[in-house]
């Protein structure tokens, strides 16, 4: 199960370019707001921004738990091998689509994200004002960090095609615990880029969105998806690597 979380964490790290494109502006705004704490030490500001990120990850974990539980119940009620295989195949095809998008080769997977665009247009003006760890006149580290976590929890529910695609994979992870672990790993993997964006401002955006880095990261994500499809078809399997993949092994059943 640890391998499952590690795989999701790697995908989150490799998706830095997408995350910065979608949420980099919000992260930079949070950093600017945070820097208005003239009385706060840099370490305190960094911790508050990290708490904001962890709040977002907690929302992802809850989503993963719900998705994983729903998928497990569905497969328990309808224990049809074809249905299970189709769900696994769809999840891995979405990973391939994510890789193509991250590599800037093809963005067809964003049709999932467009489903939430109308909601995003409605929320975004409010989001930039209410989803940030806002500064206050009197510095209270504990209260400020708790406030940042709460803001991050709200941020985690904003529409994102990348998150939606990962949730499909969480649904076939084997259960609520596995789904929560998958999404928590993914969320933790997205923290470094967005946390640095809030600390270092625009410079980090340019560095992480370098086309070479995005191509390499996208190809790695595509590799995960292709490996999952090959496992599903029974063409190839490596026992030690299977623990890092979404598939029948995570549900205690054999794919083939």
Layout of strands and helices, then pairs:
Layout: H1 2-14, H2 16-34, H3 42-77, H4 81-102, H5 111-114, H6 117-130, H7 141-155, H8 161-171, H9 176-200, H10 202-208, H11 211-233, H12 239-242
Helix pairs in contact: 1-9, 2-9, 3-7, 3-8, 3-9, 4-8, 4-11, 8-9, 9-10
What does this structure look like?
Helices cover 75% and strands 0% of the residues. With 256 residues, the protein is mainly α. The radius of gyration is 19 Å and the shape is globular. It starts with a helix and ends in a 14-residue tail after the last helix. Mean pLDDT is 77; it is low at 248-256.
Structure described in brief:
The protein is mainly alpha-helical and 256 residues long. Helices cover 75% and strands 0% of the residues.
Q: Strand fraction band? A: under 5%
* Cα shape: globular
Number of strands: 0
SS-derived structural category: mainly alpha
Tell me the radius of gyration.
Answer: 19 Å
Instruction: Name the assembly state.
Output: single chain
Please name the defining characteristics of this protein.
disordered C terminus, 256 residues, mainly alpha
């Amino acid at each position: 199960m640890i391998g499952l979380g590690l795989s999701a964490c790697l995908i989150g790290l490799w998706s830095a370019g997408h995350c910065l494109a979608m949420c980099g502006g919000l992260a930079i705004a949070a950093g600017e707001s945070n820097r208005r704490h003239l009385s706060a030490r840099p370490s305190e500001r960094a911790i508050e921004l990290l708490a904001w990120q962890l709040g977002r990850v907690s929302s992802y974990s809850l989503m993963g738990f719900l998705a994983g539980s729903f998928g497990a119940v569905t497969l328990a009620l309808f224990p049809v091998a074809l249905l299970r295989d189709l769900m696994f195949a769809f999840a891995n095809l979405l990973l391939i689509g994510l890789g193509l998008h991250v590599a800037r080769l093809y963005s067809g997977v964003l049709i999932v994200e467009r489903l939430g665009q109308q909601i995003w247009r409605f929320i975004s003006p409010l989001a930039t004002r209410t989803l940030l760890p806002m500064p206050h006149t009197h510095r209270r580290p504990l209260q400020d960090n708790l406030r940042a976590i709460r803001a991050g929890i709200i941020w985690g529910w904003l529409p994102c095609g990348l998150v939606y695609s990962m949730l499909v994979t969480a649904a076939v992870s084997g259960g609520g615990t596995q789904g929560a672990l998958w999404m928590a790993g993914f969320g933790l993997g997205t923290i470094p880029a967005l946390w640095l964006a809030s600390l270092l401002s625009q410079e980090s955006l340019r560095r992480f969105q370098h086309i070479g880095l995005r191509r390499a990261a996208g190809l790695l994500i595509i590799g995960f998806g292709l490996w999952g499809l090959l496992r599903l078809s029974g063409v190839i399997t490596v026992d030690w690597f299977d623990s890092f993949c979404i598939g029948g092994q995570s549900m205690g059943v054999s794919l083939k």
